[in-house]
Amino acid sequence: MTTANATIVRFALNTWQWPFAPNGRRGICYLLFAALLFLFLPAGAQQPPAPYEVRTIAVTPVKSIRGLSAVTDNIVWASGTGGQVGISTDGGEHWQWHIVPGCDSCDWRSLYAFDARKAIVLNAGEPALIFLTVDGGTSWTQVFRDDRQGIFFDAMQFFNDKEGIAIGDPLAHQFTVIRTHNGGRSWEPDPISTLPDANEGEAIFAASGTSVVALPGNNVYFATGGSVARLFKSSSRKHNDSQQQSNKQTLKNGNNWQAYTIPVVQGSATRGVFSIAFLDTRQGIAVGGDYKQDTARAGNCMITTNGGRNWFAPVTPPGGYKSCVAWINNSHLVATGTSGTDISIDGGMNWQKIGNGFNVAVKARKGHRVFLAGKNIAVLDPEHKGPATHGVNTGLLEEK
């Protein structure tokens, strides 16, 4: 070693040692600075590896799947383009696919499954059609049709086995709302006087059928995008003895809607909230972004803890545009879209990518498994179980 090199080494050692000198004020300051620096590092930089992986379990004949409904860990339905609807009774390993008669050009973006025999599908576009099966997809009955120009339904949800709601884009500056009170066998529109008003250029995205949430107590939330991104919410809750009757009357005659701005990216037809998920009436999350710029992370995710009145951004947002978000448990979430599939294990505050993207993700209503769908079907495994195929990027088409 040359004298010059030895001098450099001694200087480096002395530089490393001086902060830790017991009587050095500079050392104390340095230690305090280092501690503060570590304390305020973004939590995402300190996250452990995500305890999940995406595993593709089925290849489908469908070009694009956006409807997905899991009743249990074994019973799962899927729907999409070409009028196709599929059912699996073994956890997604094997599927039976059906084309609803006369609907081979329909795109079934909204789907709700009641059990292994009964399911209902709603298309995006005009005419608006709802079909019901009660024999596992072998036969279908048309239960609703709307031929109005510009009709476009975005999502359908059920409060229980009888009461359901579907919401669509504005006609004459009012969002479209229809309801069923007999398990989907017939549908009726809400009175015009009760329909929520839309701003010019405001609409709902039908990217995954998850822009509408139905919660107990007749709580209905839906999110919008375009010129403005807002959360519309309604509730019939009253703190008196007429609670139950009030709920029934509201289910029949419509809701009193309130709207709150969600500070995601907005202002154009490709931006806004594409999916919402709520643990209860207060704790929720909204994801989206700009599907034409699907790697942009700014303003693609917002969190609320007071039912949508106020929103805040996560520390580490998901990695780009997301078309769907779902709760796995009280603190874990999954979000997916063309930019990939991301996981949060701290209530949405920090996200990390675990695989390629899908259109939609759902958790079984009466189970714990999480299914994803795009072109093919996948599951979210909580731990490594051998070789895995990390998703299939569906090359999503235009979202609207």
How would you sum up this structure, described in words?
- The protein has 400 residues and is mainly β.
- The protein has two domains: 1-40, no CATH class; 51-381, 7 Propeller (Methylamine Dehydrogenase, Chain H).
- The chain is 10% helix and 36% strand.
- The strands form eight sheets. The protein has a four-stranded antiparallel sheet with strand order 1-29-28-27, with no helix packed on it. The chain has a four-stranded antiparallel sheet with strand order 2-3-4-5, with no helix packed on it.
- The longest helix is centred in the N-terminal third of the chain and has 15 residues, at 3-17.
- The radius of gyration is 25 Å and the shape is globular.
- The N and C termini lie far apart (68 Å).
- The model is unreliable at 1-45, 237-253 and 385-398 (pLDDT under 50).
How many E-type strands?
29
Q: Which descriptor suits the 3D outline?
A: globular
How many helical stretches?
3
Radius of gyration: 25 Å
**Approximate strand percentage:** 35-45%
Helix content: 10-25%
Biggest sheet strand line-up: 1-29-28-27
Protein name: Photosynthesis system II assembly factor Ycf48/Hcf136-like domain-containing protein
InterPro entries: Sialidase_sf (IPR036278), WD40/YVTN_repeat-like_dom_sf (IPR015943)
Region (Disordered): 234-253
Biased composition (Polar residues): 242-253
